Amino acid sequence: MRPALLFYCQHSLGIGHLTRSFALAAALREHFHVVFLNGGRLPDGVPVPEGIERIDLPPLGMDDGHTVISRDGALDVAAAQAARRTLIDEALRRTRPAVVLVELFPFGRKKFAGEILPLLRQARRQPGGPAQVVCSLRDILVDARRDQQHHDDRARWLADRYFDAVLVHADPAFARLEESFHPSKPMRTPVHYTGYVVPRRPREAAPARGRHLLVSAGGGIVGDLLYRTVLQARPLMRQPLPLRIVAGPFLPEPQWRSLVDAARDEPDVQLVRHVPDMVAEMRRARASLSQCGYNSALDIVGAGVPALVVPYEAPGENEQRCRAEALGRLHALQVLPAALCTPARLAVALDDLLEFAPRAAALDLAGATGSAALLARLHARRCAVAA
After folding, report:
1. Which residues share a beta bridge with 103?
2. What angle do CA 37, 199, 24 make, to 5 degrees?
3. What is the pTM of this model?
4. Where are the beta strands (DSSP E) in the chain?
5. Tens of pLDDT, residues 223-260
6. Which CATH superfamily is domain 4-196+365-386 in?
7. Helices (H) and strands (E) in the chain — how many of each?
8. pLDDT above 70 for 64
């Protein structure tokens, strides 16, 4: 009988955290009975791994990256939080997990500490012995907050107090935790690099590239400006390309309807809400225009497509810019800062992109299976010590 693993995932703004966590869950089921606590809205069209137990909590999210809002029309934030705590507590008591895997916290998700910390405390004193508590962490953290030093020191303290290990889903030759995490005291909790996590895909011959520019922005919740800008930039290009815009399941419905209206009389502009495999889409495109979240960046690397990225930036948000600049230095893609993304400048950048030949970025992309095997070893080691 496989030991139970309780996986807490709260995606709040985009879809990247959920995509990475589902890829991890699919690999983890080879070693564990995976119980997946899904804290955000589950968009249509996103494939859920088979063979896992999913518990959908009343969905919460962020409206501007700072304020928690309810995505459940029947519940306000307080009612949703109370219902979530009950479901989390019931799942913990029922499964008595050997491992509790928490996505991003304590390095992020501070506003969800009210349900995460009780989960961790109860997991450590559950009947039958404490669970191993592990953090699942992306490659690059936000390090531009106004209270960044306090944030990092608090994260270090919480990690040392509650966590047995931190899994950084990155290739250490490309990105290391200490480059974006700077606590005043060294963190004692062991850090393990797993490689980058990408969904498992069947091997297939590369298709012939089309003529079109593929435009995307992850889940789409902050993609509207990019979509509108490329519509305005296209007529200004020396070589206007047909556009295929994948708007994303989280693009707000009013913005989607407005985008449809804007493209209604444009025969060379195709709009779709969501696609099941972005790498396959990129392999069929002449070039790609996107933001530079974790999954988008890895899709670009996996597809080998000539790509221009406009990293999402907001006050206190610099993760995408750091990732884009690092990949730009490897000549894996081209970068246009968001502050410079006017229709005229985007048109010039897209014309230049058609002459760009990306270099292959030799990144470790086996992070899903690597993470699963590592957690299985950590669990086996704990059992051997306890025997």
Report:
1. 136
2. 35
3. 0.94
4. 4-9, 33-38, 53-56, 60-62, 68-70, 99-103, 132-137, 165-168, 191-193, 213-216, 243-246, 269-272, 287-290, 307-309, 334-335
5. 999 999 999 999 999 989 999 999 999 999 999 999 99
6. Glycogen Phosphorylase B; (3.40.50.2000)
7. 11, 15
8. no
